[in-house]
Amino acid sequence: MAEDASPAVKPEAFDDRPVHTEPGELPPEVQSPLAPFEGREPEAPQWFKDAIAQEPERRFVESLGTRIELLTWGEIGKPGLLLVHGNSAHADWWSFIAPFLAQDYRVASMSLAGMGASDWRETYAFQDFAEDAEACARAAGLYEGGRKPIYIGHSFGGSQVFFAAASHPDRMHAAVLVDTGFGGPPPAQQKEMERRAERVRNIPTTDRANRVYPDIPTALKRFRFMPPQAPGHLFVADYIARKSLKQAPLEDGSGMGWTWRFDPAMWNKLDRTAMNRLSEGGRPVVKVPIAHIYGEKSGVAQRRLQGGGSPLPEDMIQIAIPDSNHHIMVDQPLALVAALRALLAAWPA
After folding, report:
1. What are the UniProt keywords, alphabetically (predicted)?
2. 3-state class of 293 per DSSP?
3. Which domains are present in the chain?
4. Predicted pLDDT at 318
């Protein structure tokens, strides 16, 4: 997930960040990790260049009246994998991971509604995300390999994968969650989000688009991860950030600028009713095999391991990625590739 790292705004202004923090609360490498490059691309290793050079097929799939962005790699007829990104992210968060999996699988990566190049909605719901995922799996040919696809979801995307597994076990062979937590943001961030919502409650422009920046270097300076962390690999952060941008008219009408490709009101529009119902009678029974890959230094995973509320099965496979925070594909991308390859080769039985 990523967010806008703009400096603090006056109370009367509109703050479009998912989680607001005052300047000085975060070190520079967390607050604005790409600022030192001033728009230049960080040097990247050859494996990364080779991976992103394997361009996917890009198209849109219609689901519930919404266009959903879909990327695909590999041959139809191989076992299917559906990759789902985190909050405020997009399908290209998997574009340097998917080519390593496409040697043995038909791989698809989708942008959730309200994110990436997918259309925005008036409301978002877990059951709708599940229908979108099924539509993408069908359109990508993920069922053509002789078995149902395996869903793999990071963070917020992992919660969508879990909901789909619990609600529609007939649609998937297994589910892999990547550093997935439940119950919303931690208490301090939740309080800050509520304070931000109160500040903008009576401002008539609360549903406007993200800020528009005059050029890409300026926009890149505003990029940071959420939950906040210093990126393990800046070349990955830069790639993700650039793929997070789209052109939009400048607010003063002087021309075109750049803005973020996610609905800033998504979190407030999200209907959690269906997800909450899963746990009304206690831990939900999930018939689909589930595994969890998490960052050893991730605060999201640590809250769950320390007894935080979670609907996940207690007996599921768990794999810790050393020296990784929440965004494993940024911190330890090749370790994530290795973990997924090994897991999928031997599991589920």
Report:
1. Hydrolase
2. strand
3. 2-42+208-267 (no CATH), 55-184+269-346 (3.40.50.1820)
4. 95
